[in-house]
Amino acid sequence: MAHKIGILSDTHSLLRPSVIKLLHTCDAIIHCGDFDTPHILSKLSSIAPFYAVRGNADTDIAFDHIPETLSLELYGVRIFVIHNRKMIRQDICGYDMILCGHSHSYECLQKNGQTWLNPGSCGRKRFLLPLTMAVLTIMESGRFQIEKIELAKAENVPCALPPSAKDIKQTVLRVMKETDKGKPVDAIAQSCGISRELAEQICRLYLTHPGVSADGILGKMGL
User: Cα–Cα distance between 127 and 125 in angstroms, integer?
Assistant: First the structure.
């Protein structure tokens, strides 16, 4: 009998209906961090056995019990989980899979006989990056396969982007300045003439990456 594990990351306060529906078909769920709000934790844990690590955006006290790294074995597959792969500080040779998030960009590759998987983000859309997650299917033999789930076509949530690269950078700089003034997201969005979602994404990147420049934020946006 095969077992399915839903793997997701960087949901940032949003669980889409299609994601919830898919997770109900899984035997377990792994989240690679950046929930943003505690209600995502309780919702996921009510669906199936749930495993998670804490992301850089998970600053609420409700996330204090969530570890920064996780080592587990599910149905014979040894798995190491961390939010940002750059933060790995231990020997991970004894694992079959390495799971991470943070970049919002899907990646699956083989490295030193291990499968490295970043499921991307299926929460709030980050500009040009697609909405993705993954389903890991483990066979009785111990073999496993990974299916990339692409959600962008069905549930694309557009962001109001400025018309040119120069305008985008100027918008980011303005949002950073308004954030430094302590303005709320709604006021920033109105002041800068952009959608609330876009303003919220820029603010989050600015606040969760101390010292980041406008070009750095653009890079994290995939622009």
Answer: 6
